[in-house]
Each structure stands twice: as structure tokens, then as C-alpha cells.
Amino acid sequence: MNNTSKSWEIIEDEDTMRDLYLCFSLENRFYAFEVRYLTEIMALPAITTIPGTAPFLKGVINIRGKIIPVMDVRLRFDMEFQPYHERTCVLLVELDGHPLGLIVDKVNDVVKIPPENVDLAPKIGESKSSRFIYGTGRVGESVKILINLQRLLTQEESYMIQDIPGN
């Protein structure tokens, strides 16, 4: 009997999501966040608007009977609104146990960015959108802007979307 480990055996302690980032783009800028927050990527579904919410909160979507709030990331980052197109999609993420849909221009790929290739973002000004950025990730010759999904919503905004019926 051979006791050597086979390469295809699952190593229980191994975190297969470690250092993996989903890359997406807004205009010609490339952003990324940790894959562990992602639950699904989907084509842009019909959105039901909710009056009185922040402009970047586009409304809610019904996914398999669950009502999920959606945010236009472009508007959250204080970029100009662009009409949605065939590559526009929704990234379903889970933040603190609550689902949220993120509307992005397009998904690019999933890349591995080891910690030694991550640089903390320099504090440049006090723009609102700079609070979402925690660093940059070097991938070959390109640079991805790394965003902290936990900071996309203020505590007040987070409470507001949790109060949406069905959420």
C-alpha cells in the first residue's frame, strides 16, 4: 500500500478562495474585490425602484423569491450615469449576512493577487469614493483598484436597506 498523498486529494485546511479577486470595470478603470463575498453573477434583471432612496440605490430585484436591494457602483463612486448595455451585469454579494446587488459595467475575470502584490492606497484627498478603496493590486503589468465592500454602505444606509420588505 502506497501512503503518498495524491495531488487530487482535497486538503481540508486549504482556503481555495484565498487571494482570489473578482475584477470588473467601470469606464476604463479596473476594480476588484475578494471573491469570498460573491454569491452570483447575473445579467441585469428588471429593477423595481423605491422612492426616497439614495440615487445610487437603484431599487430591488426579485431573485428566486428573495427581494435584494441593488446599487449602481458607478453612481456610488460619484461617476456619471451611463445607460446600461448588454455587458452590464449584477454581482450578488453578501455583506454581514445581507444580500446586495452591485451593478457594474462588465465583469473581466478572477485573478489571484498574493498579499505581496497588494499595496495600501495612499490617502489622496478626502473624496467620498476614496473611502471605498483600500489598496491596489499588481497583476502582471496591470493594476487593479481594490475595494472594501464593507464600506460601500454607511451604517445608516445599511440599516435602511435591511428594512426593505422581503430582505
From TrEMBL:
InterPro entries for the chain: CheW, CheW-like_dom_sf, CheW-lke_dom
Coiled-coil segments: none
Domain of life: Bacteria
Residue span, CheW-like domain: 18-158
SMART domains given in the database record: CheW (SM00260)
Gene3D superfamilies: CheA-289, Domain 4 (2.40.50.180), SH3 Domains (2.30.30.40)
Protein name according to UniProt: Purine-binding chemotaxis protein CheW
